[in-house]
């Protein structure tokens, strides 16, 4: 059973454009990205980045950083940069190497290969206690034998900051995380959320070049998590420090980050803004991992048209696609469902089908629609991905998952199992992922 | 409804009593009764070879305060304190190594620490004598080294080192403290290891991350966070060492007797049970005093923390997370 939140969030967060009031450092890509661009995004992100990096100063640069533990490779050679002042997210399923990468940045793991620059200085061999970065630990790691104030003052004491300045900065840091006046409290008397704020204040008070956050929201309950998301974004804007967050939760990453690096099996899959990642995923893994998506087996023909068993023959919006097997992808919210045949329109496709599986989530339903007389041979994604993604077009009948907004007259008609419906979609919304790029 | 074993136990006081009686009897018969008898004897007088009459005299305690015995008493305290301190200094790194070792090696390393318990103390002590003795293993190695160095120096035309003088390591203070440390070390390492094992390692990383070095992290994070383990290690090392009898007897010289040796002599050769009882109880009083001191210290620390907490809670103006 899919978790309603997981499904509800991506679409909503995306459409609400949560941080619309500030212009993102990066404008949206043209609607039709060059496939080569997409492919290179996966292969050599630093090259693609370097074209734009001139304007935005980089605060962290990884050059071929790799890490193995014995025979196990946690991170394959990876290169990318983090820009000064941005909110950067490392996103991926557990075991994808994102935490290892974070620990390489913080200095707890020496990389097996590659070089790490922080603010232009080679920090590859510099130990953790001499790096200008600070970390908020997943377990908070607030010192239980010290008061809140002592915890926040710890790093300043080490740095031999004078007493009066120290007290001033501790007070300011605590006010920043809304723990003003709690200096004398003991960590044991604080809630989990408050302890995390102490950990935040303790790291921020050091005025790091980059604040590293290791799964900061994973231990909080759903409501508090949502609140803390907004809080972190507010904090980041207020202090202007570069935040680098590690998370496995795509909704967190999409809603908070300016740019997201998606990792899988120790590889960097794609590095882009949330909108670009969601709209133009470079690989099948990224498409599958972020949000919900329908996959269909397709083949790019010599003349540039695409033949898909489930979708028919069409000319895709992308050009210069490599000839051969590919995957056509379509987001559920891009599919319009109606009980009557929609009028024929240039640039739109349609198919008849039957509602077969309904899942109710309160504000909306997901419906699986079995397409009439259409076959599909897309294999379920074997690696990575979320288990409950609507991708199992395995064997024979073509299916597509759609969203139905509840409590509308239309929903009452459609949301019935066995109901005959029409699905239609814009051909330009079909995203083609070449097989090679699908990992 | 199926009860948990604990609920069953609590719901049936009869069952609880029945299972509590044997251990209580054991404790009463084999611990409290002898202790009480000895306490009584300490106020007694000898009547003939084996008869003792409890006459509530304090003479035995007065005798025990004779400078000869006071000196032995303080020597015992000194040995014990020194042993405990050395155990802490050696034991902490050992516990750190075990606690931070790879999971694969941990059971093996722990086994190495408890391994000495598998052999009788007497046998181990005799083996130690063989190692520390004038003709023992260590002096043997030293003599060989001395010989080679001497030959080398003479070959190079320097003056020789002279004849080898064995390093005295047995039948003196060194032998006693060495033996006491050897016996007590596992008792120190195990509670320290347990405390370190419970320590969330991310606290250490947080300390490093905030710029602290290894030494500062050790002193200001590891030590305070394992304070309870350190205190139990100190107690569990100090108390048995205070009553050591075999080790000073076998490894010590004429001037390194500990108080337990004196007590044993009163119950043995000297056949003066009332006097032996008085010294034994003096030792018990010292132990009680130290434990009480520790309890007061802990209580004060806790109440200080609690007070700080109450003060802080009083300040709160509903500032929620």
**Overall spatial form of chain B:** globular
Determine Rg of chain B (CA atoms, Å): 27 Å
CATH topology type of one domain in chain B: MetI-like fold
**C-alpha geometry of chain A:** elongated
Strand coverage percent of chain A = 25-35%
Mean pLDDT of chain B: 89
Radius of gyration of chain A equals 24 Å
Count of helix runs of chain B = 14
Helical amount of chain B:
over 70%
What is the terminal-to-terminal distance of chain A? 27 Å
Task: Look at the structure and give the mean pLDDT of chain A.
Answer: 83
What is the CATH class name of one domain in chain B? Answer: Mainly Alpha
Order of strands, main sheet of chain B, comes to 1-2
Given as residue ranges, the uncertain stretches of chain B (5+ residues, pLDDT < 50) are: 313-321
| Beta strand count of chain A | 20
Produce a short descriptive summary:
The complex is a heterodimer of chains A (439) and B (321). Chain A has 439 residues and is α+β, with helices and mostly antiparallel strands.
Folded structure, characterized:
The complex is a heterodimer of chains A (439) and B (321). Chain A is elongated, with a radius of gyration of 24 Å. Chain A has helices at 4-16, 35-43, 45-53, 98-106, 148-158, 163-176, 192-204, 222-239, 250-256, 274-279, 284-289, 409-414; strands at 58-69, 72-83, 87-91, 113-118, 121-122, 133-136, 210-214, 242-247, 259-264, 267-272, 294-300, 306-308, 312-314, 324-330, 336-338, 348-360, 364-375, 397-405, 420-426, 431-434. Chain A starts with a helix and ends in a 5-residue tail after the last strand. In chain A, strand 11 (294-300) and strand 12 form a beta hairpin. Chain A is an alpha+beta fold and 439 residues long. In chain A, the strands form 4 sheets. Chain A has a 6-stranded mixed beta sheet, sandwiched between helices. Chain B is mostly helical and 321 residues long. Chain B has a domain at 54-118 and 171-304: MetI-like fold. Helix content of chain B is 74%, strand content 2%. Chain B contains 14 helices and 2 strands; from the N terminus they run ααββαααααααααααα. Chain B has helices at 5-11, 13-41, 59-64, 67-100, 106-114, 121-132, 137-155, 173-198, 202-209, 214-225, 227-242, 246-251, 259-267, 273-315, and strands at 44-47, 51-54. Chain B starts with a helix and ends in a 6-residue tail after the last helix. Mean pLDDT of chain B is 89; it is low at 313-321. Chain A binds chain B through residues 106-108, 127-130, 134-135, 137-139, 141, 143-145, 147, 154-155, 158-159, 178-182, 184-186, 188-194, 197, 199, 202-203, 206, 224, and chain B through 200, 202-203, 205-213, 216, 220-221, 224-225, 227, 305, 308-309, 311-313, 315-317, 319-321.
């Amino acid at each position: 059973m899919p978790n309603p939140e997981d499904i509800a969030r991506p679409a909503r967060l995306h459409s609400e454009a949560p941080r619309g009031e500030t212009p993102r450092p990066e404008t949206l890509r043209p609607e039709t990205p060059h496939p080569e661009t997409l492919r290179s995004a996966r292969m050599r992100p630093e090259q693609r980045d370097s074209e734009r990096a001139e304007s935005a100063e980089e605060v962290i640069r990884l050059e071929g950083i790799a890490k193995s533990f014995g025979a196990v490779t946690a991170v394959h050679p990876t290169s990318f940069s983090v820009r000064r002042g941005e909110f950067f997210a490392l996103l991926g399923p557990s075991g994808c190497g994102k935490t290892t990468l974070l620990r390489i940045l913080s200095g707890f793991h020496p990389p097996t290969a590659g070089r790490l620059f922080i603010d232009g200085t080679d920090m590859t061999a510099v130990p953790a206690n001499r790096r200008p970065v600070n970390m908020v630990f997943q377990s908070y790691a607030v010192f239980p034998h010290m008061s809140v104030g002592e915890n926040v003052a710890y790093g300043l004491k080490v740095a031999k900051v004078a007493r009066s300045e120290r007290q001033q900065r501790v007070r300011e840091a605590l006010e920043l995380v809304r723990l003003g006046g709690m200096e004398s409290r003991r960590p044991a008397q604080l809630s989990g959320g408050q302890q995390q704020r102490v950990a935040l204040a303790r790291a921020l008070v050091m005025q790091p070049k980059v604040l590293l956050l290791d799964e900061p929201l994973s231990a909080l309950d759903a409501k508090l998590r949502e609140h803390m998301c907004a809080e972190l974004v507010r904090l980041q804007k207020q202090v202007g420090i570069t935040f680098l967050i590690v998370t496995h939760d795509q909704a967190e990453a999409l809603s908070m980050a300016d740019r997201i690096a998606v990792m899988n099996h120790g590889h960097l899959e794609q590095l882009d803004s949330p909108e670009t990642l969601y709209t133009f995923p470079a690989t099948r893994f990224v498409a599958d991992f972020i949000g919900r998506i329908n996959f269909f087996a397709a083949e790019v023909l010599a003349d540039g048209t695409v033949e898909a068993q489930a979708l028919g023959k069409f000319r895709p919006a992308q050009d210069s696609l490599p000839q051969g097997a590919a995957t056509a992808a379509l987001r559920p919210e891009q599919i319009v469902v109606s009980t009557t045949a929609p009028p024929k329109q240039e640039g739109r496709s349609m198919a008849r089908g039957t509602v077969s599986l309904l899942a109710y989530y309160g504000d909306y339903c997901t419906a699986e629609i079995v397409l009439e007389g259409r076959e599909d041979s897309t294999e379920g994604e074997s690696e990575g991905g979320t288990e409950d993604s609507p991708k199992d077009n395995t064997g024979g009948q073509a299916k597509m998952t759609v969203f139905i907004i509840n409590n509308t007259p239309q929903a009452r008609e459609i949301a019935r199992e066995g109901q005959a419906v029409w699905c239609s979609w814009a051909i330009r919304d079909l995203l083609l992922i070449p097989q090679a790029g699908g990992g | 409804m199926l009860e948990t074993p604990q609920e069953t136990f609590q719901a049936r006081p009869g069952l609880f009593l029945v299972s509590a009686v044997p251990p209580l009897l054991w404790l009463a018969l084999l611990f409290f009764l002898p202790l009480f008898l000895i306490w009584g004897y300490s106020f007694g007088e000898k009547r003939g070879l084996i008869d003792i009459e409890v006459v509530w005299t304090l003479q035995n305690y007065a005798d025990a305060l004779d400078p000869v015995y006071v000196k032995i008493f303080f020597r015992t305290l000194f040995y014990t304190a020194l042993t405990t301190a050395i155990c802490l200094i050696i034991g902490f790194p050992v516990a750190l190594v075990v606690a931070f070792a790879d999971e694969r090696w941990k059971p093996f390393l722990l086994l190495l620490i408890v391994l000495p318990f598998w052999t009788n103390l007497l046998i181990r002590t005799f083996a130690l004598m063989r190692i520390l003795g004038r003709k023992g293993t260590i002096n043997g190695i030293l003599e060989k080294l001395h010989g080679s160095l001497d030959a080398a120096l003479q070959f190079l035309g320097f003056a020789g080192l002279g004849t080898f003088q064995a390093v005295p390591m047995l039948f003196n203070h060194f032998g006693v403290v060495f033996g006491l440390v050897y016996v007590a070390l596992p008792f120190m390492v195990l509670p320290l290891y347990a405390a370190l094992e419970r320590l969330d390692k991310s606290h250490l990383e947080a300390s490093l991350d905030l710029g602290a070095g290894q030494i500062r992290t050790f002193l200001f994070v590891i030590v305070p966070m394992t304070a309870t383990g350190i205190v139990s290690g100190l107690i569990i090392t100090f108390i048995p060492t205070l009553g050591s009898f075999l080790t000073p007897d076998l490894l010590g010289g004429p001037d390194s007797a500990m108080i337990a040796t004196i007590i044993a002599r009163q119950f043995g050769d000297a056949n003066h049970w009332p006097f032996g009882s008085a010294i034994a109880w003096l030792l018990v009083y010292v132990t009680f005093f130290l434990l009480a001191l520790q309890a007061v210290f802990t209580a004060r620390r806790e109440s200080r923390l609690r007070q700080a907490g109450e003060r802080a809670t009083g300040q709160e103006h509903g500032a929620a997370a």
